[in-house]
Design brief:
This protein is an alpha/beta fold and 369 residues long. Helices cover 55% and strands 14% of the residues. It folds into 2 domains: 17-118, Arc Repressor Mutant, subunit A (Orthogonal Bundle); 122-365, Vaccinia Virus protein VP39 (Rossmann fold, 3-Layer(aba) Sandwich), CATH 3.40.50.150. It is built from 17 helices and 10 strands. The strands form 2 sheets. It has a 7-stranded mixed sheet, sandwiched between helices. It has a 3-stranded antiparallel sheet with strand order 1-3-2. Strand 2 (100-103) and strand 3 (107-110) form a beta hairpin. The radius of gyration is 24 Å and the shape is globular. The protein binds S-adenosylmethionine. S-adenosylmethionine (SAM) is lined by residues 158, 162-163, 174, 177, 181, 184, 204-206, 210, 227-228, 231, 254-256, 270-272, 275.
Length: 369
């Protein structure tokens, strides 16, 4: 530890020295390293601008407009009702970020990232609601000192006030969650088969997208979604709409206060733990453990801190969840420790296609608890 500290202190002194920077730029190998580091710092500095370029593209529906084929600046300016000089700044900026691509002397078409964003409808919905986060982050120090009136905590009312349920609020955030849930469900269920399981209980299951997908994939399965009353209504409506009402049921309640229904042989927590502080997470995990059959399986999926395959993503979730009013992204080691303290064992990570969005774990009740 002392040697590591000495080495890191030396590194920090060198990197902080303008003379050192000038000298490394003279040699090809060190120049390459210095340029890469400068680029990384620049990207952190410019990150807000990048996200506002994306936000403007989404607000103006540029990706949808260009999906039909290339358009000129004048055509886009007329369609978007933005003066051409201003719009061209955006178009050029978006092209630098590969959201768009130049086409001929005066035309534009989708860039590869803009095209990819259309394949993930959740992205546009996330971007649209991000104005709340950026409103809160406009003064980051004020937010860190006092988050009690943040815009994001009004949006996610249950975070600031556990158990809060109100129809309009529930509908708004459930729609946002549903937009990205189909990707999450595909990822989780591709890595954790529910073959041979009879009943799934999806705790905090939102408007039922995950449970509905599980029911479609595993025809012998039945599922219950447990969520706040105003959200459970939406899950019930989904099951009816999708012809799953015989096998899918929705139950309203408070997962921190009410006993969870027993009888399921798989209980899932998808994107739940990171929303809550440690004391509530422990209470929830103990409640899940009590509801679990001795041969039951806990299925957990969420984005995590310190994910090597997605460096930096933890920074987003740390700030987002702070602004939201509760919760934090946790590392796999931290979640494992909490699961074991709540009476689970055999914690396994199953892998996932997009560790940026979700990592998938299973655990089983510990024999002695
Ligand atoms: C981030 S969303 C995740 C929804 C869904 N699992 C998904 O991944 O799309 C968290 C869910 O937890 C639910 N929730 C929050 N507090 C709750 C409570 N005290 N009891 C039951 N559900 C709760 C919310 O209503 C919301 O549907």
């Amino acid at each position: 530890m002392r040697l590591k500290n000495w080495l890191l202190t030396r590194r920090d002194r060198l990197l902080g020295s303008p003379a050192f920077h000038q000298s490394v730029l003279r040699f090809p190998l060190s120049r390459w390293i210095a340029r890469r580091r400068a680029r990384e710092l620049f990207d952190i500095t410019a990150g807000f601008v990048y996200s506002q370029v994306l936000a403007a593209c989404v607000e103006l529906d540029l990706f949808e407009r260009l999906a039909a084929g290339p358009r000129t600046s004048a055509q886009l300016a007329a369609a978007c009702d933005v003066p051409i000089e201003g719009l061209e700044r955006l178009l050029r900026g978006a092209a630098e970020l590969r959201l768009l691509q130049r086409w001929g002397s005066d035309g534009w078409r989708l860039g590869d990232l803009g095209a990819a964003s259309r394949g993930s409808p959740g992205i546009a919905a996330m971007v649209r609601h991000h104005h709340l986060l950026y409103q809160d982050l406009g003064d980051p120090l004020a937010l860190l000192r006092d988050r009690s009136r943040s815009a994001l905590s009004q949006y996610w009312a249950y975070a600031a006030e556990p158990g809060h349920s109100e129809a309009e609020n529930a509908q708004r955030y459930s729609e946002l969650m549903a937009q990205s849930q189909s990707f999450v469900a595909d990822d989780v269920l591709a890595h954790c088969s529910l073959e041979g399981r009879r009943e799934l209980l999806d705790v905090g299951g939102g408007s039922g997208v995950f449970a509905a997908e599980a029911l479609r994939r595993f025809p012998d399965l039945r599922a219950r979604v447990f969520d706040l009353p105003d959200v459970a209504v939406l899950a019930g409506e989904r099951f009816a709409r999708e012809g799953l009402q015989g096998r899918g049921h929705a139950l309203g309640g408070d997962m921190f206060l009410d006993a969870l229904p027993r009888g399921a042989d798989v209980i899932s927590l998808i994107r739940i733990l990171h929303d809550h502080d440690d004391d509530l997470v422990m209470r929830l995990l103990r409640g899940v453990r009590r509801a679990m059959k001795p041969d039951g399986l806990l299925l957990l999926g969420e984005p995590m801190a310190e994910t090597a395959a997605a460096p930096g993503v933890g920074a987003y979730f740390h700030l987002y969840l702070w602004a939201m009013g509760s919760g934090q992204p946790r590392s796999l080691a931290r979640i494992r420790g909490m699961l074991e303290a709540a009476g689970f064992a055999d914690v396994r990570e199953l892998g996932s296609y997009q560790p940026l969005l979700v990592r998938v774990l299973t655990a089983r009740p510990a024999a002695a608890s």
